[in-house]
Amino acid sequence: AYCQDNEIGWINWSPEARDEGMLRFFRLLIAFRRSNALLRRATFAHNGEIHIDWHGVETGWPDWSHNSHSLAMQLSGPGLGEIYVVANAYWEPLKFALPKPTEAARWMRFVDTTYESPDDVLEEKDLRPLPDPLHYRVGPRSVVILVAR
Fold first, then answer.
1. Cα–Cα distances in Å, from 131 out to 22, 89, 107, 128, 135?
2. pTM over 0.70
3. What residue spans define the domains of the chain?
4. What is the dihedral of CA 44, 45, 46, 51, to 10 degrees?
5. Model pLDDT for residues 104-137, shown as the tens digit of each residue
6. How is domain 15-148 classified at the CATH fold level?
């Protein structure tokens, strides 16, 4: 409904219709972006400081074809940490192989839109290492953001 300029795509911003879960989700995402140098770039191109690697369900193998329904992006930089973003537009879950973090760290789930609020986005104090450091199951039509800590 993102392309509909009618009541299908409108958000009701009135105080009585306030969606606390959505508000919390975007507050935490905005705070995450503001606090993370990897996400505050002036340009998208490689500049030597921040590196972007593209992946598919297998690391190092992005599927750029017209019939692909998933893509993953790994952002990293010396002393800046790492972020791994996965988009699964497929109608079934997909199991993604995870790259090993470049620094001595483990992947932790920050966002998984498969879950309902408040489990869709976690506060920093609630981040925990993934039980399986090699794979992550991404739900259908979902986005996942992992951070290396």
1. 27, 24, 9, 9, 9
2. yes
3. 15-148
4. 30
5. 799 999 999 999 999 999 999 999 999 999 999 9
6. Immunoglobulin-like (2.60.40)
